[in-house]
Amino acid sequence: MFDITEELKKLPNSPGVYIMHDAEDAIIYVGKAINLHNRVRSYFRKIVGRGPQIDKMVAQIARFEYIVTDSELEALVLENNLIKEHSPKYNTMLKDDKTYPYIKVTMGEEYPRILLSREMKKDKSKYFGPYTSATAVKDTIDLMNKLYQLRTCNRKLPRDIGMERPCLNYHIKQCLAPCQEYISQEDYRARVEQALDFLNGNYKPILKELEQKMQEASEQLEFEEAIRYRDLFNSVKSVAQKQKITDSVGEDKDIIALAKDETDAVVQVFFVRDGKLIGREHFYMMHVDGYDSAQILLDFVKQFYAGTPFIPKELMLQEEIADIEILEKWLSTKKGSRVYLRVPKKGSKEKLVELAAQNAHLVLSQDKERIKREEGRTIGAVREIASLLDLESIHRMEAFDISNISGFANVGSMVVYEKGKPKRSDYRKFKIQSVSGPDDYACMKEVLTRRFVHGMEERAELDRKEIDKEFGSFTKFPDLLLMDGGRGQVNIALQVLNELHIDIPVCGMVKDDNHRTRGLYYHNVEIPIDTHSEGFKLITRIQDEAHRFAIEYHRSLRSKSQVKSVLDEIPGVGPARRKALMKHFKSIDEIKNASVEQLCEVSEIPEHIANQIYEFFHEDVSS
Q1: Are 361 and 259 in contact (CB under 8 A)?
Q2: Segment 292-309, tens digit of pLDDT
Q3: What is the model's pLDDT at position 451?
Q4: Can you give the residue ranges of every domain in the chain?
């Protein structure tokens, strides 16, 4: 749980950018500050006259994070880029819809396409960019498709080959129609490789080829073709010139630094695109015991850039790492152009690396505290309960509850918590089979008997050494049983366990007159709990979860029963037609009031069935 009051105390007296998140973790505001400590704290003071918009934003803040910078100017640049990247809802003055487009080549397809993409995904495609102008990207893609006559359609090839006629692009000589196998897959792939070569900046071969074709067409008096090649030649020259201008204005680089302690390491990466810092991300490295920071940095570079679709021209590292020449060669091969790994020693580049390292340290320290708080809510709370009940340790707890309405549709629920956290894959629902009336004790006895008999049968089929390796909800027995109630429910559980010769501690979760948890019933004694303790909060969460799970199951059965009791009595209406009727009309009343013609609008309902449904409800009303 993010404690805003505590986190405000930890804010540094440094310039930087702060990022506000709401309860769903969406970024709702990005701002800059010359002093993060003073600026962020000011939002949470009672200030009159700051405006309803800010008050509304502050009311939605669930947590905040921040990035430290060297100056307010750097904070301004970063703030602007982050706003463009995330478009927070409360940055109305600076907000725009600009995102950074990429050129995507769908290499995962057997007949690849060249597309515009607003995001990079870890798929088999190759990405180029990001670019500052969507118009330039669209122009480049159009040029590529004209040059290499690649497909732009969404047909699934080779599955759809020959299923439809070739489209207009084939007839205007902008596609070679692989959908008709007018070009082999090998020749098509060769053209894609030429396009990739072009996107990597190698323009000379295509310029030479276009100039040659333009001259040949002119000599053969094919002037329309000569003009087409001339226009393509000029377009390629224009793209090549724009690329040179872009390269001279700004570079693409990643700045990488880390922070580590005895057990964990965090790597911070700043992403600079076209000379602008557009964002940052941190990554956790596990199993770092015994490794120095240079080795961890080396492992990160190898693992991260093996999977990322975009590799920048330069990686700026915090310190020297081994195998730099080999890594440069590997990354250059992946990118298709030269990649440099450098360790800056002075100037602005060194400051950027220091800034990344500083933020890595902040992330690591904050994460340690978050983990500590989380352990207090989970493992720490379990230890409190174990101490309260004088148990050596508790790993797995199971809680049970019964739900019904005056004995109708009796159901039971089983929820599982391991190390203080819910293990939802092990939750189970029980539809009571032997009890017809409102008898919670009898229902609980059936649920517990079925749960443990099933578990004993599964255990009998397993080698004893393999039990702990199983993940089945019944095979593993709990270290503590929690019953929703006091003495009565506990005694039922103890009776079932005694009959099955199973030794498991049983504890009742006792509620007061207001239906709030007040203590634990254990060994015939009610044990009070400090209502402010983490152990008490965990018990309350488990009790509420068991109750919620049982009620949801009961509600679903009741809903199904209500639908079934009416529609299934109509001849010719089975599960499929019942489902179609409910999907179309939304309620039984709408079906009841529908005419025959309206019933026939449901595709699964023929006219004679529609007549039967109409007559059923109208006869029912008249009677």
Answers
A1: yes
A2: 888 888 888 877 886 666
A3: 92
A4: 4-86, 102-249, 254-374, 382-558, 568-622
Instruction: Give per-residue pLDDT as tens, 446-501.
Output: 999 999 998 888 877 765 445 444 445 678 899 999 998 788 889 999 999 999 99
Q: What whole-number distance in Å separates Cα of residue 293 and Cα of residue 260? A: 7
Residue with tokens 């390796």: 469
Tell me whether strands 480-483 and 428-431 are parallel, antiparallel or unpaired.
unpaired
Maximum pairwise Cα distance, the chain: 106
pTM above 0.85, yes or no: no
**Inter-axis angle of helices 204-219 and 185-199, to 10 degrees?**
120
**Alpha-carbon distance 270 to 257, whole Å?**
9
Q: Cis peptide before 158, with omega less than 30 degrees from 0?
A: yes
Contacts for 168 with CB less than 8 Å, ≥ 6 apart: none
**Domain 382-558 matches domain 568-622 at the CATH topology level:** no
Secondary structure string (H, E, C) spanning 198-254: HHCCCCHHHHHHHHHHHHHHHHCCCHHHHHHHHHHHHHHHHHHHHHHHHHHHCCCEE
**Stronger pLDDT, 517 or 92, i.e. the higher one:** 517
Strand partners for 18: 31, 66
Q: Are 314 and 340 in contact (CB under 8 A)?
A: yes
What is the distance between the alpha carbons of residues 246 and 223, in angstroms, rounded to a whole number? 35
Assess if CATH 3.90.930.50 describes domain 382-558.
no
Q: What is the rounded CA–CA span in Å between residue 58 and residue 256?
A: 33
Cα-Cα-Cα-Cα dihedral sign, residues 295, 296, 298, 302: positive
CATH of 568-622, one of 3.40.50.150, 3.10.20.30, 3.10.450.540, 1.10.150.20: 1.10.150.20
Q: What single DSSP character describes residue 474? A: T
**Would you tell me how many other CB atoms lie within 10 Å of the CB of residue 138?**
13
pLDDT surpassing 60 at residue 92: no
Instruction: Identify the pLDDT of residue 504.
Output: 94
Element containing residue 351 per DSSP (H, E): helix 347-377
Range scoring the smallest mean pLDDT among 11-15, 87-91, 498-502: 87-91
Class of domain 254-374: alpha beta
Bridge partners (DSSP) of residue 405 are: 408
47 in Cβ contact with 332 (< 8 Å): no
Distances (CA, A) of 52 to 24, 56, 59: 22, 6, 10
How far apart CA 204 and CA 237 sit, in angstroms, is 10
- The string of pLDDT tens digits covering residues 394-451 is 989 999 988 876 556 688 889 999 989 898 888 998 888 888 777 889 989 999 999 9
Q: Is the peptide bond before 130 cis (omega within 30 degrees of 0)?
A: yes
The three-state (H, E, C) secondary structure of 122-136, written as one string:
CCCCEEECCCCCHHH
- Looking at 115-124, 190-199, 457-466, which range is the least confident one? 457-466
The pLDDT score that the predictor gives to residue 348 is 58
* 8 A C-beta contact, residue 17 and residue 75: yes
Euclidean distance between CA atoms 6 and 369, whole angstroms: 11
| Homologous superfamily (CATH) for 4-86 | GIY-YIG endonuclease (3.40.1440.10)
Task: Indicate the length of the chain as a whole number.
Answer: 623
Task: Please give the DSSP secondary-structure letter assigned to residue 165.
Answer: -
- Helical axes 347-377 vs 534-567, angle rounded to 10°: 80
Alpha helices by DSSP H, listed for 64-202, are 72-86, 134-148, 168-171, 185-199
